[in-house]
Write a structure and sequence with these properties.
Layout (H helix, E strand, L loop, with lengths): L2 H18 L4 H8 L3 E6 L2 E6 L2 H22 L5 E6 L21 H13 L20 H12 L8 E5 L5 H15 L5 E5 H13 L3 H8 L4 E5 L8 H16 L3 E6 L11 H8 L2 E5 L4 H15 L5 H10 L4 H18 L5 H17 L3 H12 L3 H5 L5 H16 L5 H7 L5 H17 L1 H15 L1
Helix pairs in contact: 1-3, 4-8, 5-6, 7-8, 11-12, 11-13, 12-14, 15-17, 17-19, 18-19, 19-20
Length: about 450
């Protein structure tokens, strides 16, 4: 047997042994067991898979695990590529053990899609502009939304709203839909999430009703798709969305998307689709400032017909800074505790409840978890974070760690410098000020930090 081929087989066997410990047995057998190394060139490992579907799935779901396992065996490995190999046959013997679903008749398939496309707009009537608080953190997105309502399909098309979790994107999107429907009852409106869109697409492919699926979406006057970031890596979904987008756009039908990041930050997104997203109006929603948090709390209290002291409202707004959803959650916690005890809570009692239920959850996040989260996010070894290297790929993650330790955990500058390789406190101050400035001026840094926070606090 060829020596090189034997070596490749041994490397892949060791890699698979590593991967088998990281993922479930069912997933390992289905997606990874029946693979091999076809060749290696210039530090790139070409992995053979049985078909194009497996290629997409393994690449999107397991590539990071595979690269990590390969580098443990051979640190010189730079990257991976996936190729369909005719030497590999799919695992067919497993099919007989799967309980097949009853076949749907053509009539039932048509009814399923008719029901899907003719349901109500999927809009929640409680999301309106009346209770949407506008501040500097969201005023651009709000102004764009109002402009869309006045001239659907012409002023800003598409409208792409992005920002972190819990900042009111869904509220704004649905408020647009509700207002357009109020102004014109005949408007055909569809609100959906990308996940639901993708699931219905898969179902249409399985049931051979892809034509009905596409035609159903092309009839709308307003199409709203939430959480578009989950398009990442979904090749077929991107392809079909691209064609639906073009069909609606050519008819001057309004299209609105939301995402937790800007189009430039969505990985594995086809350039033609990215170009469509960026071709209209992009508006970001950031974290609400203190005054906006006060206004949001007062609006929520008015809706619930409950009074709280100014001191209590100010304390909540000063403590909960990240997003609107956290504010509402903190308020609900306070009201539930107040009802349970049968009295209005003092500020001291409020602080004790918050320390126990909200602030404590952040205290459980260790320094090591922050380091690991950022190391994983930027795909660098943790040791480089502590070293004195000034290489850009290490400096930025290090500065973001310093920023988060100060901003989210109120750590002292001397403590931050000491923890990050014994650096001077002035280095920590510089890092905090630099990242604070970058967040205001660089949407990519802002997106990355929001994503890191989502990973930390999930």
């Amino acid at each position: 047997m060829d020596t090189q081929q034997t070596e490749k087989g041994q490397i892949w066997e060791k890699t698979l042994n590593e991967l088998e410990m990281l993922i479930s047995k069912a997933n390992f057998v289905t997606w990874l067991k029946n693979t091999n190394i076809e060749k290696t060139e210039n530090g790139i490992v070409f992995i053979g898979v049985p078909n194009s579907f497996s290629k997409e799935w393994v690449k999107n779901k397991y590539n990071k695990f595979i690269i990590s396992a390969l580098r443990k065996i051979d640190p010189s490995i730079k990257d991976t590529e996936y190729i369909v190999s005719n030497k590999i046959k799919p695992i067919c013997e497993k099919i007989s053990t799967i309980k097949l679903m009853p076949q749907k008749t053509e009539e039932s398939q048509q009814m399923e899609f008719k029901e899907f496309h003719e349901t109500k707009e999927s809009l929640n009537p409680r999301y309106t502009f009346n209770d949407f608080i506008v501040g500097s953190f969201n005023e651009l997105a709000h102004a764009a939304a109002v402009a869309v309502i006045k001239n659907p399909g012409t002023t800003y098309n598409p409208l792409f709203i992005y920002g972190g979790v819990g900042l009111g994107k869904t509220h704004l999107l649905q408020a647009i839909g509700n207002k357009i429907k109020e102004d014109n009852e005949k408007s055909q409106i569809k609100y959906t999430t990308l996940e639901k869109f993708a699931n219905m697409l898969i179902s249409s492919i399985q049931n051979n009703t892809i034509h009905e699926f596409k035609e159903g979406y092309k009839k709308y006057d307003l199409l709203i798709i939430d959480d578009i970031q989950f398009l990442s890596g979904k090749t077929k979904t991107q392809e079909e969305l691209f064609h639906i987008f073009n069909s609606l756009y050519e008819k001057n039908k309004q299209i609105i998307f939301s995402s937790d990041r800007s189009p430039k930050s969505i990985l594995d997104l086809e350039e033609r689709l990215r170009s469509r997203f960026e071709g209209g109006m992009m508006a970001d929603i950031s974290e609400p400032e203190y005054e906006a948090r006060i206004a949001i709390l007062k609006s929520k209290l008015q809706t619930k017909d409950i009074d709280l002291s100014e001191e209590t409202i100010n304390y909540i707004a000063s403590t909960i800074k990240n997003n609107v959803r956290e504010l509402e959650g903190a308020l609900n916690l306070l009201l539930a505790q107040s009802k349970l005890l049968g009295k209005n809570l003092s500020t001291q009692e409020l602080k004790e409840i918050f320390n126990k239920n909200i602030i404590y959850s952040k205290k459980k996040i260790t320094f090591n978890k922050i380091i690991k989260t950022i190391g994983d996010f930027y795909e660098i070894e943790e040791r480089f974070i502590f070293e004195k290297s000034r290489r850009k790929e290490y400096v930025l993650p290090r500065q973001i760690i310093m920023y988060l330790l100060r901003e989210d955990f109120n750590a002292s500058y001397p403590y931050i410098g000491k923890k990050l390789g014994g650096r001077d406190h002035t280095t920590a101050i510089h890092a905090y000020e630099k990242i604070s400035k970058d967040i205001k001026n660089n949407y990519q840094i802002k997106d990355e930090i929001q994503k890191i926070r989502d990973c930390l606090y999930k």
